[in-house]
Specification:
Order of helices and strands: EHEEHEEEHEEEHHE
Low-confidence stretches: none
Largest sheet: 10 strands, mixed
Helix content: 10-25%
Length: 260
Amino acid sequence: MRTILLTLSYDGTDFCGWQRQNDCETGHARTVQEELEKVLAQMHKQPVQAAGSGRTDSGVHAMGQAVTFVSPIDSIPVQKYPAALNSLLPHDIRIMSAAEVPDGFHARFSATRRSYRYFMWCDSPVPASEMRYVWPLFRQPDVEKLNRMASCLQGEIDCTTFSAAGDKSPSKKRYLEKAHFYMDGPKLVFEISANAFLWRMVRSITGTLIQAEQKGKDDDYIRRILEAKDRKLAGITAPANGLFLWEVGFDGIRRGPTAD
């Protein structure tokens, strides 16, 4: 028996998120977890349960989703897993790497950091090849202004203001490591890292910041609505298609809740 850590990339457009479920917003229940477990069972000739580092929502993508599973056989060299699984998986899921990890290692509970990137397109029109992966803004926001407003998103914070109505997390506190904007050609990128995130929290923060900058709010606006701990003060929720789970870290200090 071995514990295997996989790094997954997937196009979330046609998925109801990572987690196996019976229904979703788009009327079907195709999930990344279900597709992966199907081919793991095919390879191992028995059911295999895969655990992800976080539950990406319907339409959200990943460049570095971390997944662990316990392999019931030792005959498959770990370096062979990516090619073997990719030959069976649909083209919108790719295994980027595989490694053997110690017993008890868990993609969710061993993770110390999740990093997301949200992509926005500032030019017009948006190329067809980018439409599934960006939020079209059709304008050039003030990046320095956005970063001044986002500067309060660091350290342990009560994120109630950016929680969704259906979030069942017992604690709304999260430890944020960084949150900043930068330009990458015509794309505006928002990168944010934390120990974990509330349901739709990244999309809520992104949409609120973009809306606040457009409306000319002052630099302390985000700080004030955070301190109010009132989700009715949050702005729009950015669409799912611009969001990528970019990287999962397992080094450093593991802090607080593991909800994501």
